[in-house]
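Task 17 of the worksheet. Students: predict the tertiary structure of the chain below and write it out as structure tokens. Keep your answer in the requested format; marks are given for formatting as well as content.
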Amino acid sequence: MIIQKKTTSLNRNIRLWILSIAFLLLLSGCRIELYSGLSENDVNNMLAIMMSNGIDAKKVANPKDKNFALHVEESKIPVAVELLRENGYPREKSVAIGDLFKKEGLVSSPLEERVRYIYALSQSLQETLAQIDGVIVARVHIVIPDNNPLNDTIKPSSASVFIKYRPGSNLIDIKSQIKRIVENSIEGLNYEEVSVVMLPAQTSQYSSG
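Model answer:
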């Protein structure tokens, strides 16, 4: 009888221990949506950052708009936000060119066409530079003067590039190549008229890298 009571008590303690562990695991694995409306490429990169820093995360597809959401362990949200910010996520969404100038007629004005062209060119260059390993943020500002062919003085085109890069990336060594990419992408732009500013991103206390 005594042995049976001890066995029953032991089994009860084991069950309580198992339930406690299961409850703690459930709490630790609780994920909530951190960001939504993400492209698959962005959410995959964000998921990789989370995993490399030991944060439980999951990508969730939205079949309605074909975008994705990132779900992160609730207790790790402050760390997750800081790590993603450090790596330039979520990426800033480009303003649709159609939203800059609502086309009401069949023919666009010269100003509209000019703005559309410069905007599209800068966006294309930003996307190209963002593909370079180590680049977190790339911004390109282009100035193409509306020169009058009858004038004797022609103002040159110019471009300003800002790049925030991941510490440890040797992007300073390819600064001249970045300038060359921009120069060759804009008609009439001289190499000397391209300015590039490159700054390292601040590393957070949470980063494992």
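Marker's comment: The domain at 99-200 is CATH 3.30.300.30 (GMP Synthetase; Chain A, domain 3). Strands lie at 31-38, 57-62, 67-73, 135-143, 158-165, 194-200.
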